[in-house]
UniProtKB/TrEMBL annotation:
PROSITE patterns: MGMT (PS00374). This is Methylated-DNA--[protein]-cysteine S-methyltransferase. Gene3D superfamilies: Winged helix-like DNA-binding domain superfamily/Winged helix DNA-binding domain. Keywords: DNA damage, DNA repair, Methyltransferase, Transferase.
């Protein structure tokens, strides 16, 4: 990811760090800034793949591999059973107001809970904007930190997920004991 916005000496925000976390589901990369705010995350071996998911308004010029910090520790804690850990890390994404409202609403959906696209639209303040609520999931670059895997269709089936329906199902199964849900 280069030459998107020319960096200047005064632009200390021109760089994002990245780190790989080894998880039972495979390598998980997190892109973050100096404050450990997450810009993108997911199961991939390519930080460039994730960088391409970051909204153009937030694009950075450089990616630098860094030592794991709070964001990576939250992923490890999630896999160790602290299913709320990713929700305690700040996330920065950019879209229209409704999509951003949906992302904020998703961060309030606790582990083991599931919401439909309709319920997500309602939580974000526009009950008839079901398709836009689905777009919030499609455009979410910060998986786990913005838990779009917790959104299901109105009939309870899984719907889509950037990292595959099998992974979505595994995440929901991992979280089910948090609320005593049968899988």
């Amino acid at each position: 990811m280069t030459d998107r916005h020319p960096a200047t000496v005064a632009d200390h925000r021109a760089e994002l760090g990245w780190t790989v976390v080894t998880t039972p589901d495979g390598p998980f990369i997190v892109l973050f800034d100096d404050a450990q705010t997450v810009y993108a995350s997911g199961w991939t071996e390519s930080p460039d793949y994730l960088a391409n998911l970051v909204a153009p308004a937030l694009c950075r010029d450089y990616l630098t591999e860094r030592a794991p910090g709070a964001a990576a520790e939250a992923v490890l804690a999630y896999y160790d059973g602290d299913l709320d850990a990713p929700s305690r890390i700040a996330v920065r994404q950019s879209a229209g107001p409704f999509i951003e409202d949906c992302w904020a609403a998703l961060r309030q959906v606790g582990p083991g809970r599931r919401v439909t696209y309709t319920q997500l639209a309602e939580c974000a303040g526009r009950p008839t904007a079901v398709r836009a609520a689905a777009q919030c999931c499609v455009r979410n670059a910060a998986t786990l930190f913005v838990p779009c895997h917790r959104v299901v269709r109105s009939d309870g089936t899984l719907g889509g997920y950037r990292y595959g329906l099998e992974r979505k199902g595994e995440l929901l199964a991992r979280e089910a004991p948090a609320v005593g849900v049968a899988v």
